[in-house]
Amino acid sequence: MIELIGVSTALLGVFFSMRRHWIAWVWNIISSGVYLYVFYTNQLYADMELQGLFIVLGCIGLFTWNRSEQNWRAERSGVTHICIGVIFSLAMGLGLGYLHARYLPDASYPFLDGALAGFSVWATWLATQKKIVNWIIWIGVDVLYVGLYIQKEMWGTACLYAVFIALAIQGYRDWSNTLKSID
Fold first, then answer.
1. Of 37, 38, 100, 124, which shows the fewest CB atoms inside 10 Å?
2. Which pLDDT does position 66 carry in this prediction?
3. Nearest to 7 by CA among 173, 162, 144
4. 69: pLDDT strictly greater than 80
5. What's the confidence (pLDDT) of residue 61?
6. What's residue 183's pLDDT?
């Protein structure tokens, strides 16, 4: 039942993100609180910790988007910023993977879980900054998450992340219509 609440609130968060509405961050914060518990009970500790960061990033997103003009436009990211994001994500993944493998012997897939957490933090940060590349990162991350959650027999969450893939594709299309280039 708790997983179903997480699925529902997460879908609302992505739905409103696609629509570029600030209420998305409220739903994302609620969903992160629910999934913090769900991932803890499934020994996915990097995902659990990620939910705490999502709550903080959700507050940043709520503040940033709420202060924006109502019909803001998405922006591109530069190559340098993308390279820094990839390096950060991989470093975070290796660090979390090492710590969880060493100190939490019941951790499931600690390096994969850590890497996906690293890329998720980066994608969320990009979303708070209205960068369109966040959707592309989410597509790749969500494909891998579907496989992980199937392995863990977390069927509701696996289905949620499959839906996230479709929503990320649509979110990318929607945001592309508002795109403004970096000069």
1. 37
2. 80
3. 162
4. no
5. 87
6. 36
- For the chain, the distance separating the N- and C-terminal CA atoms, rounded to the nearest angstrom, is 48
Residue 4's Cβ-side half-sphere holds a number of Cα atoms within 13 Å equal to 1
| HSE toward the beta carbon, residue 121, CA cutoff 13 A | 24
User: How do residues 12-53 score in pLDDT, each as one tens digit?
Assistant: 999 998 888 899 999 999 999 999 999 999 999 999 999 999
Residues 174, 114: Cα–Cα separation, whole Å: 30
Spatial separation of the C-alpha atoms in residues 26 and 179, rounded to whole Å: 24
Q: What mean pLDDT do residues 136-156 have?
A: 96
Query: What band does 153 get if pLDDT is binned at 50, 70 and 90?
Result: very high
Q: Closest Cα partner for 39 from 128, 100, 83, 123?
A: 100
Question: What token pair was written down for 118?
Answer: 């690293």
Amino acid at 153: E
d(CA 89, CA 142): 15
Q: Which residues contact 114 (CB under 8 A, 6 or more apart)?
A: 46, 92, 93, 94, 95, 96, 97, 98, 100
Q: How many residues does the chain have?
A: 183
For residue 35, what is the enclosing H or E element?
Answer: helix 23-41
For residue 76, the 8-state DSSP code is -
- Backbone φ and ψ for 48, nearest 5 degrees, come out as -65, -50
SS3 assignment for 108-126: CCHHHHHHHHHHHHHHHHH
